[in-house]
Design brief:
Blueprint lengths: L2 H18 L1 E2 L5 E4 L5 E3 L11 H5 L11 H12 L2 E4 L3 E4 L5 H12 L5 E6 L5 E7 L4 H12 L11 E6 L2 E6 L4 E7 L4 E4 L7 H11 L1
Length: 211
Amino acid sequence: MTQTDKMLGEELLARLVGHFGVTHSNKDGGYILPDGSLLNLNRSNLSTKQYHREVAALLPEEMQGACDEIGIVNLMTTTGMIRYEAQGRVHVATLPTPQQRQRLFNIMKYSETDYLVLVSDKTAATIGEQKFKSPQAHELLRFFERCFGGEPKQFRADEFAIGKDGENYILTFRPGKLEVARYDSVSETFTVEPQFKGVLDMFKQRLAKIK
């Protein structure tokens, strides 16, 4: 992360905390800040509760995505925040800090609910997904290290679609409506966007089924 990105992240965090405030109640929070505190969305009060899209709405225009979900990933990537829902869902886009891992552990360890933990990269593609039930702290750490440790990304097939452009085939990342790979039928060559290089094998396998 560049110094400029770091400053932007700190400015966004300050703006969000100034707007929503923080809370110690897991039921009221909606995001875990890098220091382990919770952004107060008043989730336990139906008349005053805030939604994740209202947090994303405070993003600068240039960080807004093609859909709310991409805007939220941009927000998490820039600030390091973790999105969570007390009903059983966690969404991560950067390696959690020790304070965030401790907070997650506290949220999940006594819950009777299974938690689905999703990990996205900066493009908003899903690169990790696992269910946890009252996990041990080391289980969470191992999972996050595997996702962010430089191993080849494991993309979700249902986030990508194959289409045709004339006689050529293209692979599109559906959430972002981005062309991420292309097969040239004349030269029989593949080109892949660098941040999506892990989709090449998937593209080849799916292409073999339709050609």
